[in-house]
Amino acid sequence: MSSAAAASPLAAPIQRRRRRPSTLTVYRWELRKLISQKRTYLGLALVVILPLFFVIFQSIHQRHDHGPGNIFAAQITQSGLATPVLMLLFLSAFLLPVVALLVAGDIVANEDGNGTLKTILTRSVDRGQVFAAKALTAMTYAAIAVFLSAAVATAAGVASWGFHSITTYSGTVVSAPEALLLVFAANAVYLIPLLTLVSIGLLLSTATRNSAAAVVGAIGLVILLFIVAQIPGLEGIQPYLLTEQFQNWQGLLRTPTDWAPIAHSAWVCALYALPALFAGYLVFLRRDVAGG
Amino acid sequence: MGEEAAPVRARGLVKRYKEVLAVDHIDLNVRAGDVYGFLGPNGAGKTTTLRMALGLITPTEGTVELFGRDPLREGARALEGVAGFVEAPRFYPYLSARKNLQLLAALDGDGAAARIDEVLEIVELSARAGHRVGGYSHGMRQRLGISAALLRRPRLLILDEPATGLDPAGMRDMRTLIRRLAGEGITVLLSSHQLPEVQELCDRVAIVDSGRVVYEGALADLRRQGGAGYRLRTTDDARALTVALGQDGIEHAAVGEQGLGFQAQEREVGELSLALARAGVGILALTPELATLEDLFFRLTEGNDGQGSPAVAANGLTPPSAPPSTGQAVEIG
Predict the structure, then answer these.
(1) What is the reported pTM?
(2) Is B96 helix (H, G, I), strand (E, B) or coil?
(3) Are strands B251-256 and B259-263 parallel, antiparallel or unpaired?
């Protein structure tokens, strides 16, 4: 090893107080790590390919029969703005949750397994900062997946069928710009249950220290809740199941806007998300880091 | 202004994993400027102790303070001026060395990013800094671990087995670097089972066995306490051994390739030489020998009764079971 740079002191002066980094800095680096990993793009590729595939398939087959009662399916070739609504309808129940969980379930467990958690926890940031940055990163990824999917679906739909007005669930025709705004808002509202699921994935990632267990565990929870929703006699708990909140964004596509399901979704999701985040935070704060 | 708190001060540290007592009431006192060796066989509790010191794991009992601050209570603030790694240093394999250091510098703040080129130069990784760490050899990762620690301009450097897996040149370079860092006033806590490394670098040591400290203090004191040993070459070593065994105060006499080894006080050595002369045995050479760290290490750690209560004599050492060795110290475990 070199003796170069010997003139510059390697040890800090005594009693010198360090300026410590902010949580925003930690968050920025969490994002950079995410961007540097190939697997990050796997989920994003899925949410890009599926809307494209859907539009190409529709264009070739010119299908209009998407089942009775689905007003947006009936408008698929009349306005490109029906495509993002339909895609959100299709992807919101399972694919988008899976994509979001690929990162949320992995973000702590992977670092624990590789031993890099101890590397970052022996720097000048507190555990709470690291946890907050990881939670924000997992949520950012979920939001990117949702809006990327919506953007691709909108672009592909508009390119194929034009930027036209659409008819909402209540039969009201809304102009194309207003419809675009509603599409954006619907995706934003869908983030409420999705980010709740991300919080649960984060808790499992922290508690299990195993990426696969966290991802599979959270997906298993979603499947379980879907099954519970189908069990006769349990209709009373249905409105409080997390999976039931996945479709509440549709309240935005009524005129006037039906805020009740959205407000309901918000507080029900808070009941899931806040304890999950708090439990994850406590586990992360108190855990022994001996992995890697 | 008051005296600065000790770099490391541990009191009654205990770590229990269900039925396994990994660390059993360990006390450590690392003073400013020490190059402090933390020695012990594999599984003795060294790494667990270091993890507790860095706040990575919670002690079952006891406290540890770094410069007077408890990492468990004060978090990152307690690690100000502290750097190092436990077990092998770990990095993000999909990032280059430079990107890894940039990340860590960002997490350090305090202008650490400006020192990246300097620390890469010190560990001679500048030319490979743009390559992904996933393709690095073990030795390169060890060096990157040192450079990552130096980014923090530490006053206390905690290194867990830094030479493990390095080739002889790498080990020599690592020792040179540690000496240089110590020379710049950095206190070094060096966990190792490389006895030559510790003997060469450290001025104070703690030896742990089965989770307990069996010796803590100056290395020179330890070697003095190990007792004076002598090596005797005679015209008839076998007869010399018979004579030695009949003398009072001559202990642990044994004949080896280098002659007759034994332990005794100076007065008894004089009496032995007279007895040998009377027996017609000629003395060719009589050499005093201090116990090596290896001898002392084995005496301390192999004297453990296996119940977590080492057989430690009043002077801190077990009764010697063999004369001091003249051989090279070796790696344990």
Answers:
(1) 0.83
(2) strand
(3) antiparallel
Do residues A289 and B50 lie in contact, with contact meaning Cβ atoms separated by under 8 Å? no
Calpha distance B185→B264 (Å, rounded): 40
Scanning every residue of chain A, which has its alpha carbon at the shortest distance from the alpha carbon of B132?
A: A36
Fold designation for B8-222: Rossmann fold (3.40.50)
CA distance A262 to A95: 21
Please give the class, per CATH, of domain B228-290: alpha beta
Between CA A158 and CA A163 the distance in angstroms is 5
Strand-pairing partners, residue B260, are B232, B255
| Residue B243 distance to chain A (closest CA, Å) | 54
Distance (Å) from the C-alpha of residue A148 to the closest C-alpha of chain B? Answer: 25
Which residue of B lies nearest to A126 if distances are taken between CA atoms?
B76
Q: Measured between CB atoms, does B94 come within 8 Å of chain A?
A: yes
Q: Are B154 and B184 in contact (CB under 8 A)?
A: no
Q: Which two tokens stand for residue A47?
A: 């949410």
Over residues A45-58, the pLDDT tens digits come to 999 999 999 999 98
Q: b or e along A106-116 (b: 16 or more beta carbons within 10 Å of the residue's beta carbon)?
A: bbbbbbbebbb
Give me the residues of B, 116-155, that contact A with CB < 8 A. Answer: 118, 121-124, 143, 148, 150, 152-155
Whether A230 has its CB under 8 Å from any CB of chain B: the answer is no
**B173 inside 8 A of chain A by CB:** yes
Number of folded domains that form chain A? 1
Reply yes or no on whether the pLDDT at A291 is more than 70. Answer: no
Supply B248's token pair: 């009072």
Non-local (6+) Cβ contacts of B53 within 8 A are B8, B10, B64, B66, B71, B158, B189
Q: Per the domain annotation, does A7 fall within a domain?
A: no
Q: Which residue of A has its CA nearest to B89?
A: A119
Domain that holds residue A139: 23-286
Alpha-carbon gap, residue A110 to A131, rounded angstroms: 14
What's the per-residue H, E or C state across A92-131? CCCHHHHHHHHHHCCCCHHHHHHCHHHHHHCCCCCHHHHH
Residue A212 token pair: 């696969």
Count CB pairs under 8 A between chains A and B: 145
Q: Residue B305 has what pLDDT?
A: 46
Residue A195 pLDDT class (50, 70, 90 cuts) = very high
Residue A93 inside a domain? The answer is yes
B4 touches chain A (CB under 8 A): yes
A7 shares contact with chain B (CB less than 8 Å): no
CB pair distance less than 8 Å for A10 and B83: no
- Whether A228 and A237 have beta carbons less than 8 Å apart is answered as yes
